């Protein structure tokens, strides 16, 4: 085993097909028992590419970085994409691009280190879990150096790492990268016995409001239930894709994910999937796609064919909470944005991103902006916690 002082070898591959699933997943800490973050699994990233969802043609050209030791063993990796736009990232830099190009610069293409269309925190500078600390630091440093070198050699304006865990974010800050914070809304399981126990932790007004919303859905004649991936067949994915597409068109003009993407994850990641199915007279009219991680349920995609009052809250939030309690999960991450989640028990938590910018003047301008934005985000999180639905002195705000 290396001690952190031996030579490492860096390469770039233009697609997940160039690295074996077993090799990538070993580095990412993924196994069939649910360990690891589902979105950095080879199966998920490969499904995005093979399905045409994240390809060069779609503006996501894969340039994944691999780090090997002297024996040829993969010890580090990063999911990297060369991008000519900023769609599907959820850490918004449109204003940066506009300002830089107005000043005569060329913002695109840029390098994006993230999971496409997935605003969920997870490893980005991926290091084999069993490595000793010194070796792990060396591998992480090699990944950072490789990203900076790739951008510098190709005269790329910037590198952006979205939704890394806090330890990676801090390491990037120590390496001189600009640091940015954002926020999401997560639900924390405080060892609730059941959904009623969760409700009992809320103030009376919030408890009654949730009960009213759930009762309205129950009385609408719509059956809502979670279905595990193994229960789902092509008909379910056909129906869900149609619902997802209809909702996506109304939200941002076109869906990011293709029908084949859902088919592939249904085949290769069934043990990680929980689809909340909403049916009326035996026909699927809504659905919420979730992924299972290590003690976490990640809410990802929603689709519906009709605007049924409170159905979105039931399928995306309350069913997720019930599932997490029933299966002893620690947390539900409900995705990007949405202060309306607070009154439903999802409290604000910080998220992170890090940015390397080549042009010194532009870097200084972005650094100044981020200093002001960070203070605003911190204040906003503090302010939103004042609207917590939990009884005073009860559930703590997540750290």
Can you describe what's shown?
A hairpin with a 2-residue loop joins β11 (273-280) and β12 (283-292). Helices cover 37% and strands 24% of the residues. The protein folds into two domains: 9-183 and 350-384, Gcn5-related N-acetyltransferase (GNAT) (Aminopeptidase), CATH 3.40.630; 190-329, Gcn5-related N-acetyltransferase (GNAT) (Aminopeptidase, 3-Layer(aba) Sandwich). The strands form two sheets. Strands 2-5-6-8-15-9-14-13-12-11-10 form an eleven-stranded mixed β-sheet, with helices on both faces. Strands 1-3-4-7 form a four-stranded antiparallel β-sheet, with helices on both faces. It is of the alpha+beta class. α2 runs antiparallel to α9 (259-268) and α8 (234-252) crosses α9. It contains eleven helices and 15 strands.
Total domain modules? 2
The CATH class of the largest domain is Alpha Beta
What is the mean predicted local confidence, pLDDT?
94
- Quickly count the helices: 11
Strand order of the largest sheet: 2-5-6-8-15-9-14-13-12-11-10
Classify the oligomer: single chain
**Which value, in Å, is the CA radius of gyration?**
22 Å
CATH topology category name of the largest domain:
Aminopeptidase
The CATH homologous superfamily of the largest domain is called: Gcn5-related N-acetyltransferase (GNAT)
Series of H and E elements: EHHEEEEHEEHEHEHHEHHEEEHEEH
Q: Report strand %.
A: 15-25%
Which structural class should the secondary elements be placed in?
Answer: alpha+beta
The CATH architecture of the largest domain can be given as: 3-Layer(aba) Sandwich
How many beta-strand segments? 15
Shape: globular
Helix content: 25-40%
């Amino acid at each position: 085993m290396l001690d952190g002082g031996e030579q490492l070898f860096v390469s770039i591959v233009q697609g997940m097909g160039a690295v074996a699933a077993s090799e990538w997943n070993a580095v990412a800490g993924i196994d069939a028992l649910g360990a690891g973050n589902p979105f950095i699994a080879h199966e998920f990233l490969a499904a995005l590419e093979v399905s045409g969802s994240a390809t060069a043609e779609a503006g996501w050209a894969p340039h994944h970085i691999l780090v090997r030791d002297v024996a040829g063993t993969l010890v580090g990796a990063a999911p990297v994409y060369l991008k000519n736009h900023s769609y599907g990232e959820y850490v918004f830099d449109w204003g940066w691009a506009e300002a830089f190009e107005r000043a005569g610069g060329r913002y695109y293409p840029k390098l994006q280190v993230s999971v496409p269309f997935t605003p969920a925190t997870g490893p980005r500078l991926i290091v084999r879990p069993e490595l000793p600390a010194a070796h792990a630091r060396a591998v992480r440093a090699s990944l950072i150096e490789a990203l900076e070198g790739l951008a510098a050699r190709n005269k790329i304006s910037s590198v952006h790492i979205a939704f890394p865990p806090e330890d990676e974010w801090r390491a990037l800050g120590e390496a001189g990268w600009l640091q940015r914070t954002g926020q999401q809304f997560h639900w924390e399981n405080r060892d609730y016995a059941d959904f009623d126990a969760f409700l009992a932790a809320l103030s009376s007004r919030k408890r009654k409001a949730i009960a009213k919303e759930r009762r309205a859905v129950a009385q609408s004649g719509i059956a809502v239930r979670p279905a595990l991936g193994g229960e789902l067949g092509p008909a379910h994915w056909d129906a869900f894709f149609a619902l997802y597409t209809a909702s996506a068109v109304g939200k941002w003009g076109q869906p990011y994910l293709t029908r084949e993407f859902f088919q592939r994850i249904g085949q290769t990641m069934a043990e990680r999937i929980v689809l909340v199915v909403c049916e009326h007279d035996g026909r699927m009219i809504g659905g919420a796609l979730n992924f299972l991680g290590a003690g976490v349920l990640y809410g990802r995609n929603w689709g519906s064919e009709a605007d049924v009052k409170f159905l979105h809250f039931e399928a995306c939030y309350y069913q997720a909470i019930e599932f997490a309690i029933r299966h002893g999960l620690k947390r539900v991450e409900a995705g990007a944005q949405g202060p309306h989640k607070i009154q439903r028990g999802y409290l604000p938590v910080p998220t992170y991103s890090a940015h390397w910018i080549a042009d010194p003047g532009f870097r200084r301008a972005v650094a100044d902006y981020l200093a002001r934005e960070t203070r605003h985000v911190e204040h906003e999180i503090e302010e939103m916690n004042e609207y917590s639905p939990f009884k005073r002195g009860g559930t703590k705000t997540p750290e």
